[in-house]
């Protein structure tokens, strides 16, 4: 087969900025100082001032800086190049319009501590976004303060803690507190980590052979007592909708606990079903997934928390409230709030982008996107069904799960398949997650991919499977076309080098 | 096939124990190092620390995983293999020799009887596959 | 919907190919009683031009964005060179994901490595992570880390730390079995008073901000000496990163953990976010650091590259025993800061800091000379300082905003109602002399 999506091309080399630095080069110019200069010794005694002249910090001209970052940028795969099938990451199109909105000076230049009367537009944006997210999730209480999904999780779990303490009168009674948080074995690592941060002990719930939460095991764990709640993802991390969701919520509520939903997979639900209608008490959303705010190579994200009216008093402070027809204020009078989870109001720039996303799609467009996302995942699942092992039969929602079971017979593993996919011009799918399945490959195309490219992906995966059977070494040694091959991560972890130092440069690293 | 030498005691957590008088030497088995992959870091206690049987005494990390280490028998740590800080790969290359992790003074020699023999451990890891 | 490549007709064909009659059937595995049976009650779609008009009209209501401003207190108005924003808008940077597949993410990884190095250089520390959400959460995580490292459960925090940062730390430690104690502020100097008697054996760390919330530069070395004698860690917090260009690095003063807000480095104030938290520590604590780390690695041909490393500390592996739950951090903002630090460079960072200090000193002198106004604190400052007005500061600042079109500073009563006449003024290299003079005139007139 001829690889159609990608081919090799000359790639620019580029050293570290510190290695490029030349003494005396300048990349900036400030206006001249327009006030009388006082001797620095009079402003700040010498022992409080730097005496290292910022040695080691680079000196570069403006073209140096532009070339440096431009060159290294060309080494990255990115959404604008095409399909980025990372499961549970929702790599959808990052709209340029949203970028323009976020840069409007009236927002970009607004200081967070400007008095509310001089920031009405900013508060209006937050208020409206809150309203729309409440409608989308079916949960009326919304805080935009958490800065990422994991942060939103921590917030939601802390709210559960606070709610239970208020309900059960255990705020100061450590011994009587419900301490257990139930988490499925298929959960994302942030879930138990967040539970732990809030002082909970984690008990793991098994999944059934269908890839769903084991109701019997759930009942058993709830009966054991002390259950504060359940953290659930729906659709779950295997891409399957938990059809017993209402019963799951009933069991947990019956045991006196609350249900937290990890909203990472909302791209399968927007406009189709609402967590609030399923019995969920609190959810976090990932604006950088479902609502298209850019991933940025690792953030910024935004992880709003949405909750029932009962949990609303516990949301982080301040809240954005409306006073009268078109006026907004910050409400700091929230005695039951868990407090602040971050300074100021959240990753505001992402709020702007998410609101722009919601308004650009419109209510019918939001549902359309969900349908297209699930359709694309089904298309891939269908295309690969004969080639790769599917651990669960249930129809996938917005992402589909496969394993390397068939390929390992020839000594080829998920990692190798992923690396070979790079040569075909794609970013690999999520690998080795969820943990309940050996050699997991979790594929989420999102709605942002056209049919032809989906087919290219399917064809590439099939071709790799053929290579695994007939020419395994090609797959095992992949990638062949990148500027660096597989890097020795064990050596990197044994003797970590986490920063540049002049000695390294001299040694010719 | 994992290497399971005679003359050592084994635990179900994949640690081995060599006993000489009332001192013991502890490490992880060949099976364990193989499952972990390239060991990048070993976290060990300090000499002088005391533990009960089955206590966590440290952890061993590979690139993608971390496992806790459980002491097969109770005792006081007398010596720790400091060379593993710079050369954690010894655990992979020579798990029963240079990859030893700590030496301890056994507080209850009788506990050794509840550990597995080489043959029993070999059966055990066979049953896991 | 124009962001969806497959047209409705194409989608119909795809559905048929899958043996499905309609899009509704895609959701057959969802029980009917859970399905939403009506359209979402959110607005209808807007065209680009309509959307922009809407947002522009909302932005127009933010009067404070158009005025000269002397607001600081955790968010700072500095000039960002044009290339910062144009470079971070490259698709390859902003639409890329976390660099889990290093072979095709070397751009992101090398930039993180450069960021980590620059943070170490400025803070005077050995290792820095790829970023935290912001300064406030970085500080909270530093408190958690201090407990992990020392196995002690009490942390003393200066009352001169930013009040919102204090609030966040309180939330984070609520269930962590850590007790936060306060160190009071000396009313004459404006610096934190360190009572050596407070450093009992159960203190894991002392947290001090410098310059502190009142703008005063703390004597970090004196703190370090006392704190270390007690076997505790010194955590230094910096909200105004521009100060790194002039003040002695916290590392050089003996800090064990340094956390900072990096927003001053080329990041717009943007009503509070997204910002970027800096987190740096000593070599010996590297394995306890939260967040992502990029490190050097080589391939079989000996070519140098970069990878995310020491991942076993993190949530996706350690799960409930992780050093933190952080996953997505502030990657693109860290990149913006990296480009800023590189473009300004060794000379520029120092020049910006010097201008901030000089302009602040000028403003201070002028304000101190106004009848009825005083500067209550004697400690040296960098670019922020407290002014005591003869009357209610919030009302005064309101008059200045409405009558003189300037945001004169932050009334401290926002956080400390017992200080109605005090306000915090911040001056940066972007405040022109004319603006400072206008502020002074405005204060005189009010």
Structural overview:
With 509 residues, chain A is of the alpha/beta class. Chain A folds into two domains: 100-109 and 116-359, 3-Layer(aba) Sandwich (Aspartate Aminotransferase, domain 2), CATH 3.40.640; 368-491, Aspartate Aminotransferase, domain 1 (Alpha-Beta Complex). Chain A has 18 helices and twelve strands. In chain A, the strands form three sheets. Chain A has a seven-stranded mixed β-sheet, sandwiched between helices. A three-stranded antiparallel β-sheet of chain A has the order 10-12-11, with helices on one face. In chain A, helix 10 (245-254) links the parallel strand 4 and strand 5. The mean pLDDT of chain A is 95. By secondary structure, chain B is α+β, with helices and mostly antiparallel strands. Chain B has a six-stranded antiparallel β-sheet with strand order 1-2-3-9-8-5. Chain B has a three-stranded antiparallel β-sheet with strand order 4-6-7. Chain B starts with 8 loop residues before the first strand and ends with a helix. The model of chain B has no long low-confidence stretch (mean pLDDT 92). By secondary structure, chain C is α/β, with parallel strands linked by helices. Chain C folds into two domains: 68-79 and 346-445, Aspartate Aminotransferase, domain 1 (Alpha-Beta Complex); 82-340, Aspartate Aminotransferase, domain 2 (3-Layer(aba) Sandwich), CATH 3.40.640.10. Chain C has twelve helices and twelve strands. In chain C, the strands form three sheets. In chain C, strands 1-7-6-5-4-2-3 form a seven-stranded mixed β-sheet, with helices on both faces. A three-stranded antiparallel β-sheet of chain C has the order 10-12-11, covered by helices on one side. In chain C, helix 5 (106-123) packs parallel to helix 10 (331-368), helix 6 (135-150) crosses helix 7 and helix 10 packs across helix 12 (433-445). Classes of the chains: A alpha/beta (509), B alpha+beta (129), C alpha/beta (446). Chains A and C meet through helix 3, helix 4, helix 5, helix 6 and helix 7 of A and helix 1, helix 2, helix 3, helix 4 and helix 5 of C.
Give the termini distance of chain C in whole angstroms.
55 Å
CATH secondary-structure class of the largest domain in chain C: Alpha Beta
- What is the C-alpha radius of gyration of chain A, as a whole number of Å? 26 Å
State the order of secondary-structure elements of chain A, H for helix, E for strand.
HHHHHHEHEHEHEHEHEEEEHEHHEEHHHH
Enumerate the spans of chain A where pLDDT stays under 50 for 5 or more consecutive residues. Answer: none
User: Largest sheet of chain A, order of strands side by side?
Assistant: 1-7-6-5-4-2-3
Fraction in beta strands of chain A = 5-15%
Secondary structure class of chain A reads alpha/beta
The overall pLDDT average of chain C reads: 95
Strand content of chain C: 5-15%
Order of helices and strands of chain C: HHHHHEHEHEEHEEEEEHHEHEEH
Oligomer: heterotrimer
**How many alpha or pi helices of chain C?**
12
Structural class of chain C: alpha/beta
Sum up the overall morphology of chain A in one term: globular
Helical segment count of chain A: 18
